[in-house]
Amino acid sequence: MIRRRITVTRVILAIILLGGLVITVRRFALGLGAVTNLSDSTPWGLWVGFDVISGVALASGGFTMAFLAHISGDHQLRPLARPAILTALIGYLLVVMSLIYDLGLPWHMLNVVLNPNIHSVMFEVAWCVMLYTMVLFLEFLPSVFERFRAERWRRWLHAAAVPLYVLGIVLSTLHQSSLGSLYLIAPGKLHPLWYTEMLPLMFFLSALVIGMAMVMVEASLSARFLQHRLPMDALARLGQYLLFVVLLYVAFRVQDLTYRGVWDRVLDGSYESTFFVVENLLFLIALPILLHPGWRRRPATLISAGYLLVIAVVMHRLDVTFVGMRRATGAAYVPTLEEFWISLFLVTCGALVFGLAARTLPVFERGDGHAHDDAHADAGGAGRHRLA
Amino acid sequence: MHGCRHANDLPIPAPDATPPEELDGDNFTAVLPHEDDDAGTVYFRRLCMHCADPACVSACPVHALAKRDDGAVVYDRDLCIGCRYCFVACPFHVPTYTWTRTAPVVRKCFLCAHRLDAGQIPGCAAACPTGATVFGPRDVLLHLAREQIAAHPDRYVDHILGEHEAGGTDVLMIASIPFADLGIWTDVIERPLPELTWMVQEKIPYVIGTGGLLLGGLYWVINRRMRLGREGGEES
Ligand code: SF4
Fold first, then answer.
1. Residue A387: pLDDT band by 50, 70, 90 thresholds?
2. By the CB < 8 Å criterion, does B229 face chain A?
3. Exposed/middle/buried for A255, CB within 10 Å: 0-12, 13-18, 19+?
4. Three-class SS string for B132-162?
C-alpha cells in the first residue's frame, strides 16, 4: 500500500521533471517568445511575478527567523530557525534559476557586477539577492559541518554567525523593500490602489508576514511528509509576532488609503477593486485567528492562518505585477502552460532538495547545546530524526 | 516611416501591407490615425520621446541604455541582460523586444544616433516632405512650436507635448486636438521619473549603516543581559 502510493508520487514527480527539462530545452533553443505569452505590453509575466517577486518574499523566513531567534534572542524560536534558513537558501537559489529562465540574455548577467548603475532599483535587487544568497549559504554551512563532524570549521563559522545574521537582515530589508520600489518609477501605470510612495514599506512588512507564515506552513508540511513533530510551542509564540506584523501591515494599509484619499476606489466595483478587496480580506480573515489565544495554540487553526497569509501576500505581489498594471498596458496576459510548468518544475526541484537536505543534514535539531524549552528536542548526534 | 526604415535597416513591408498599429521590433516609429468626434481623422506619431531624464536609463541596471549629450537615448546590446525593467519604467510605452529570437534585444528609436555621428539628421526628419517632423536643438524647436501655435491658434491646441511631461523630453509634439483625447500619454506626470526611485535608493547607505549598528547593538545588549542573568544564578 505504502509502496504503491510512493510509486504514484514518483511517477508524477518524474512527469513534472521530464516536462520541465523538455520546456527548458525549448526555452533556450527557441527563445522566450516560443514558450511564454510575454509581449511588449506584458514584459513581466509569471516568472517575474511569481518565481522572482513572490519567490523572494516566500523565502523571507530566513532573515525573519534569524532576527527573532538569533538577534533578539528569543530562544524558544530556535528550533524553527534552521529549517527557515534552509528554505531561504533553496528559495533564493530558485530565484536565481528563474532569473536565468526569464532574462533575455542571462549570459550577460555578470554585467550587473561589472557595469552597475546605482540609480537602478534592479541593480539593488540583483546585488542584494546575489550577496544574500552567499550569506545564506554561510549561515547554513554549520549544519553541513556538524553532519561531517568538522568541529574546527564549525567553530570558525560560529564566530562569524552574528555578523552574518546582521548582514543577512540588512540585505533582506533592502531588497525586500526594493521589490516594491521597482514600481515607484511607474506612477502612471500602476493602479492607484497599489501605487503609493509607501510601496517599499508595504513590501517589507508583507515580506515579514509571509516569512513567518511560510515557517508555519513548512513546519506543518515537514511534520506531514518528513514525520517530524510539530514544534507547537515555538509556532504559537511565532504566532504572536506574526499577529503584531499583520496588525502593522493592516494599519499602514488603512492609513495609506486614507491619506491618499482612495477609499472610494476600493469599492468601485472595478476589476482592480475586486482583486484588491479579496487580497486584503485574506489578511483580515487571518487576524482573528491570530488574536484568539486558543486558536493560536491549536495547530489546525494556526496553520490555516499561515496558509491564508501566504496566499494573501503572494496575491498582493501578483496584483501589483499583473492586475494593477493591466489597465495601463491595455493587454490581458494569461501565462502559457509552459510558464506554469516551469514554475511548478522549479518549486518541485526545491521541495526535493529540501527533503533530501532535511533527511541527511541536522536541520531539524540544534547541536550547539543551547537550551530551549522544547522538552523533546534532544540535541544529539547528527542526522537523527525524532519521529512523531 | 520609410525614412526610418531605410535609416535603420528595418524590413520594408509590401506596399499593400496593413500599416502597423503599434511600435514593434521592426517599427521604431508609427503614424497612427485617431478618429476624433470633431476634428475627424487625426494622425499622430509614436516614437521614443528621448526624455531629458529618461526613466529607462535610470532603470537599466547595467547602463545598456544611455543618454547621449546630443539627446539620443541609445542602447548597447552587449551590456543588456534582458531584464526588461525599462519596459516597466518608460511612461510612453516605447521599448519593444525581439521576443522570438534566442538572443533577444531591445528595439526602439535611437534618434538615428549613427546618422548623427555621421553629421546627418535622423531618417524621419530627413524624409519628411512637409516639415511636420523637424530636427534641431531643443530650444529652437520649442521656439518654433510656440511660434506655430501663436500663428495658427485655430489649428493647434496650446500644449507642447514633451515640454514638461516626464520632466521634459527632447522630442516635442503639437497637435490640433488635446493630447488627452488621443487616449494615450494621459498618465505621464511632470516630474522626472528617476527622482521617484532615487529618493529611495539614495537612502541605502544609511539603511546599511544604521541597520547594522542597531542590530549589532541589539544583539550585544540582549546577549549581555542574558549572560549576566545566567551568571547571576540560572534564572531562566
Ligand atoms: S520615451 Fe521611454 S524609451 Fe524613450 S527615453 Fe523616455 S523612458 Fe526611455
1. very low
2. no
3. exposed
4. CCCCCCHHHHHHHHHHHHHHCCCCCCCCCEC
Ligand 1 atom at minimal distance to the Cα of residue B95: 3
Chain A residues in contact with B200 (beta carbon < 8 A): 121, 177-178, 181, 184, 200
Mutate to test the pocket of ligand 1, among B63, B90, B164, B197 (most ligand atoms within 8 A of CB): B90
- Break chain A into its structural domains and give their ranges: 37-357
Strand, helix or coil for residue B188: coil
Residue A369 near chain B (CB below 8 Å): no
Give the CATH number for residue B84: 3.30.70.20
State how far the alpha carbon of B31 is from the alpha carbons of B42, B46, B142, in Å: 10, 6, 22
Residue A284 confidence class, pLDDT cut points 50, 70, 90: very high
Domain that holds residue B42: 2-200
Distance B72 CA to ligand 1 centre (A): 10
Question: Choosing among A117, A164, A178, which should be mutated to test the B contact, i.e. which has the most B CBs within 10 A?
Answer: A117
Choose from A52, A70, A119, A172 for mutation: most chain B CBs within 10 A.
A119
State ipTM.
0.86
Residue A55 CA to ligand 1 center (angstroms) comes to: 30
pLDDT digits (tens, 9 = 90+) for A238-267: 999 999 999 999 999 999 999 998 898 888
pTM comes to 0.89
Region of A167 on the Ramachandran plot (φ > 0 left; ψ -120 to 50 alpha; else beta):
alpha
Read off the amino acid at residue A5.
R
pLDDT 10s digits, A42-57: 999 999 999 999 999 9
Residue indicated by cell numbers 498582493: A316
Same domain, B177 and B81: yes
Number of independent structural domains in chain B: 2
Dist. CA B54 → ligand 1 center (Å):
6
One of 3.40.30.10, 3.50.50.60, 3.90.1150.10, 1.20.1630.10 is the CATH number of A37-357, namely: 1.20.1630.10
Per-residue pLDDT of B36-57, as tens digits, reads 877 788 888 888 999 999 999 9
